[in-house]
Amino acid sequence: MTETVSGSAARRGKGGRKGLKVERIFTTPGVHPYDELRWERRDVVMTNWRDGSVNFEQRGVEFPDFWSLNAVNIVTSKYFRGAVGTPRREWSLKQLVDRVVQKYTETGLRQGYFASPEDAEIFDHELKYALVHQLFSFNSPVWFNVGTKSPQQVSACFILSVDDTMESILEWYKEEGVIFKGGSGAGLNLSRIRSSKELLSSGGTASGPVSFMRGADASAGTIKSGGATRRAAKMVVLDVDHPDVAEFIQTKAREEDKIRALRDAGFDMDLGGKDIGSVQYQNANNSVRVSDEFMHAVEADGSFGLRARMTGEVVETVKAKELFRLMAKAAWECADPGIQYDDTINAWHTNPETGRITASNPCSEYMSLDNSSCNLASINLLKFLTDAGTFDVAKFVKLTELIITAMDVSITFADFPTEKIAETTRDYRQLGIGYANLGALLMATGHAYDSEGGRSLAAAVTSLMTGVAYRRSAEIAAVVGPYAGYARNAEGHKRVMRKHAAANDDVRTLDEMDKALHVAATKQWQECLKLGEKHGYRNAQASLLAPTGTIGLMMDCDTTGIEPDLALMKFKKLVGGGSMQIVNQTVPRALRKLGYQQEQIEAIVEFISEHGHVVDAPGLRHEHYEVFDCAMGERAISPMGHVRMMAATQPFLSGAISKTVNMPEQATIEDIEKVYYEGWKLGLKALAIYRDNCKVGQPLSAAGKKEEPKAEAAPTEVRPVRRRLPKQRPATVTRFSVAGAEGYMTASSYPDDGLGEVFLKLGKQGSTLAGVMDAFSMAISISLQYGVPLETWVEKFTNMRFEPAGMTDDPDIRMATSVMDYIFRRLALDHLPYDERAALGIFTADERAMQANGEDPAALHAEEEVDHETLAQSAEITRPAAPSHEAHSSMEVIESRQGRTADAPLCLTCGTKMRPAGSCYVCEGCGSTSGCS
């Protein structure tokens, strides 16, 4: 986007240096970027679906017509400033972008970044174009604060420090509170605090860092970040040689035991329940900082010394392997602690003369000096995939230049929560450019996430981004000077630049796309080294991979950060109201890339719409299954697939990667040990795991809280009553064929509607199969008459897989994974209302056709009415209400396909289930996050 000016036309910056000349890439001379778009007015009304309350309402907001309803809702409710309902409230995306970009442009011009006012104007237009076209986004604090009367805080990530004094500990509490109040998160290392096995000067025993964590945890649980909807995010780190490390490792695991005991005693321990507040240490992510010495001791099954904080003497010797296993066991039980690899982190540290890197931000992607901060921005990678299937390298390079320039300008005008953080950040100017939509880019280009080709493409694009960022940093240093701490760290910084360039040389490309990216990256690193040698660098750090939760939704990204696609089905809100479940739009794009014809694509997409996965999809070749592997579902990516992707990109990042390695519920402690060990061997800086269903606290149910029983009420036993069918009842007989195996199904109903009996004929009379089917039929029929809802059986038996399986002769159910799968799909189509079927992913042929055309199949059933009250009154018993299966988020869509509950919290604002974003969670409905934004 920009280039260094030469000649007499160049504007002189500070110290007589030349300014930057800015060229147009996206915009047209004489045309404002807003004028090239079609804008439309929309009404934003956001509700909590659980109780129907309105959380937010603003009508008549203005956005480009291609922005999704979700993106519009999130930007309007999160980022527009001014009191709602007053003339001071922002109502257009133009106002928001103008407010932010104007501050960047004015500051850059005033500080001598640009060669002329004309270059500043081009910078202004290019930045506005990129933002309104969703090419990238700044992190949330920029949108919250820049251009307002509030402090101009632009950083989302902070690292604090604490020493072994009560004054320092109390200052830590205060600093965290200020940062949480400002809408950001913080991390710190507690290893300077004396252990509980060391003496105080008064002769008493020290409390130890774990005791002080309690106070900080309570503070974090009380303060809502920014006065908004998410709790404070924090990271607590302890070195592996600290004498209290075993206690630290087990803190959260012990609290999980407490939750189990309280839950079993009848206390409300649901996530958000009234009694969960008694549980400690839940507001922080915990990580153990391990050294190479410790990991080598684990390899050798040797001993390892735990050292006093004040003297460095060994106070206790432990078996390294046993301590390592304790970490894995605690993570198996509750997902904490994570692991950070200290020697790897500091081997890539550009400022070793200033001090070591001891901690990270809450999501583990920002790692730098104590008392520092980092402002982030993320590029939407999918925007650079052309219709011809190539990656637009030139525009990606220019956009990266533009973003780095803008981010560095922001440090010049930014405010900070403490003076110590302000001083360090201004002296070292840490930046964090990253990207989102990598998973979607890989799928759209026909690359499996867990494949050599996928990792090669990811490595090449990450190397190019960081190479451009540091090359631009050197160019800015030529204009306004290197960062203040550069002189004392020059050799260390240049050493790390050479390490990045050497890692780039080791990348092995496999196809034309990653080859083009790698060629460009190699050129950028060569220029970076040359310019850095001459001018130094403006920024101590340049890149990392953040969760991109809220801003990912703002950019309409399918995938966040470095993550793969969550699943092939997603939840989509419709502009006219309502919602529908759709197959990710990346899927047909990938199928076209893989060479499938339109008819084949439609059939595969229809299969995914019904089943939620690609296994046995008609016409899809088995070697292409891996392209559609996701984080969850039928073909979930293996834990080591996630680790290998992190390892492919880590050598090209200044910081680290916000990502959680998901592991199945059946994973063992040994599996976690392997992941932690391989993360070290592969050169990661940090790693966290999450084993499905390892947490006890579950999201609140839609039914709400149970009422307390009255003291005077005598206990009564409630038993279900069988409601028998009359001797004469309506029935339907269905002849079916599954992969050539023929059978008959007779389904009888109550006269007032409702299935009550099923009999199946399959196999020869007297055969074992026929006898088993008779017994199965009686069991199902009796359970229906005792009140078991049909949808429960449908959930359990659809997608059951055994032979015979394959094509059927039913136009509504083209493929079946077994006879059971077919039977219960047919029963659902014949006896369940549309809403319940849709939640289970079961549709007729006509309904699927409407979905393919972008229409809402619910319109087919608008006239259908069922008087449930009359049915209930006519029944001999009142059946318990079945839980609602209607999906309100992509996570709930995935749950309906998997037939089990996913471990994800409910949004405190709108009640929907959140989805993972790096090591945090984000709400698709309102943009709230559980960690850094």
Which key features would you list for this structure?
933 residues; alpha/beta; ten-stranded mixed beta sheet; three-stranded antiparallel beta sheet; 28 helices; 25 strands; 15% strand; globular; RNR_lg_C; Vitamin B12-dependent ribonucleotide reductase
Can you lay out the helices and strands and say which pair or pack?
Elements: E1 2-4, E2 20-22, E3 39-47, E4 54-64, H1 69-78, H2 93-110, H3 117-132, E5 136-138, H4 140-145, E6 157-159, H5 166-181, E7 185-189, H6 209-222, E8 234-239, H7 245-264, E9 285-290, H8 292-300, E10 303-307, E11 314-319, H9 320-334, E12 338-341, H10 342-347, E13 372-380, H11 393-413, H12 419-428, E14 431-436, H13 438-444, H14 452-480, H15 486-505, H16 512-535, H17 550-554, E15 569-573, E16 579-583, H18 586-593, H19 598-611, H20 639-649, E17 660-663, H21 669-681, E18 686-691, E19 731-738, E20 741-749, E21 755-762, H22 768-785, H23 790-797, E22 806-810, E23 813-816, H24 819-831, H25 834-840, H26 845-852, H27 868-874, H28 890-898, E24 915-917, E25 920-922
Parallel strand pairs: 6-7, 7-8, 8-9, 9-12, 13-14, 17-18
Antiparallel strand pairs: 1-2, 3-4, 5-13, 6-13, 10-11, 12-18, 15-16, 19-20, 20-21, 22-23, 24-25
Helix pairs in contact: 2-3, 2-11, 3-11, 5-6, 7-9, 8-9, 9-21, 11-14, 13-18, 14-15, 14-16, 14-20, 15-16, 18-19, 23-24
Enzyme class: oxidoreductase
InterPro entries: RdRp_reductase_class-2, RNR_2_N, RNR_lg_C, RNR_NrdJ/NrdZ, TSCPD_dom
Pfam families: Ribonuc_red_2_N (PF08471), Ribonuc_red_lgC (PF02867), TSCPD (PF12637)
